[in-house]
Amino acid sequence: MTIREKAIQAIENCLDPTKGGCAGCPYAKMPRDTCVFQQQEDALEALRQSGAQLLALDDVPKRDGAVWIEFKVISGVSDQAGTWAFFVAEQRPNFNFQLQRDLQSLTRLPIDTYGFYWRCWSGRPTEKQREENAWR
């Protein structure tokens, strides 16, 4: 059982006694005054592990819903780095992605610059995640 599964089962058991209460809890063997703290630590770790993931280019058009796109700061070319949510509107083979932010804005990005000047995330990345994932 993963930390995430263990924490979910424990929270469900605490919130709904019909699911077994303490008897069905994976932390049941711990003293009552410490099981809740361990459950919270595990839930927090599971949340941290489920954060935004850097997407491979092939996975971007498969996303259901928004992707977060990050642009790289290039001295003298682009002073605007940042991360914004977009929907993948269209992908033309070997050419570009069309990313739509709202009904008026449509951005076309060349595929061959993915990972060099722009990249996509499954959710909004933290500064730490952005720093830990090097550009190509």
Summarize the structure.
This protein has 136 residues and is an alpha+beta fold. The chain has helices spanning 3-15, 32-49, 127-132; strands spanning 66-71, 82-92, 96-100, 106-110, 118-121. The chain is elongated.
Number of separate strands: 5
How is the main sheet built? 5 strands, antiparallel
On the 0 to 100 scale, the average pLDDT is 75
User: Treating each run of at least 4 consecutive H or I residues as one helix, how many helices?
Assistant: 3
Observed structural traits:
single chain, 136 residues, alpha+beta, 2 domains, five-stranded antiparallel sheet, 5 strands, elongated
How would you characterize this protein structure?
This protein has 136 residues and is of the alpha+beta class. It folds into 2 domains: 3-49, no CATH class; 57-132. It contains 3 helices and 5 strands. The chain has helices at 3-15, 32-49, 127-132, and strands at residues 66-71, 82-92, 96-100, 106-110, 118-121. The protein has a 5-stranded antiparallel sheet, with no helix packed on it. It is elongated and about 55 Å long. The two termini are 36 Å apart. The relative contact order is 0.15.
